User: Fold this.
Amino acid sequence: VINGLTNEYHPCQILTDILTFEEHCGPITGKTVAWVGDANNMAYTWIEAAKLLGFKLHFSSPKGYELDPALTLAGDHLKVFDDPVECCRGADLVTTDVWTSMGYEEENAVRREAFAKWQVNADSMAAANQGAVFMHCLPVRRNMIVTDEVIESPRSLVIPEAANREISAQVVLKRLLEGLG
Assistant:
């Protein structure tokens, strides 16, 4: 099983997301990704990817759920927003994840209230560039984290993204095995 998930980073998922974006939208270099939600392992990995691959990451979370400066790479690849809709302005990809990560389930009710304005919805996508796409690594709490209108739209890449998880894991496994020879 290839996952590569820790509490701080989730590189295999971001590899999948970038593969999916590039298949459908072309190179990610020079683009803008909007992360709307928790400062979790996905967000920190998007920050690393932005610095390494030359794209911008817009980030927005509620007060109390901001990025940890110790896990944030300095540079002009990252811009933080208080307003989730403004975070999406000019984005080529809008993405999010669960509001309550594994191990934090006891905080679910508090987080649900804190993140209510961070739902990805029609306003979020309207602020993004025309042709911008939406991704979420699934499973998702529909009409809480993202509206049905967004996840069911032609702009949503959640199904191809899910299909690409197997391909990404195979590539990682192949590269690991090649390094052993």
Remarks:
- Residues 59 and 114 are 16 Å apart (CA to CA).
- The mean pLDDT is 94.
- Strands lie at 32-36, 56-60, 78-81, 93-96, 133-136.
- The longest helix spans residues 158-180.
